Amino acid sequence: MKIILACIIIGLAAFGCTKSSDDTPSIKDSKKLINFKEKGIARAKEDIANGKMKILYYGKPWSQGKPLVDDNSGLPIEIVSGCSVTPEFQEETDSYNDTMRKKAKEKLSQQ
Known about the structure:
mainly alpha, flat, two-stranded parallel sheet, 4 helices
């Protein structure tokens, strides 16, 4: 029994399962360091620069027979997920789409 307990304690110490110091961010805190809105905007700008304009779709299933074209911008739709998404995914994707729609609107107004 003592050997098993000793192995458990050694294993916990080896994997860093002891209390961390206050200056070490936890996994939960590290998510706060990522700005998902800015990440979505940056991804969209990169795709725009590479000539890959599209709208990312998630949510309820796309209507059968409906063209994969965004009603607001006329850009092609790429289905990336269903209904079950994280708030972070939603924030990043919505920011991406907002950036794409603004660019599409700018292009239309320049014509």
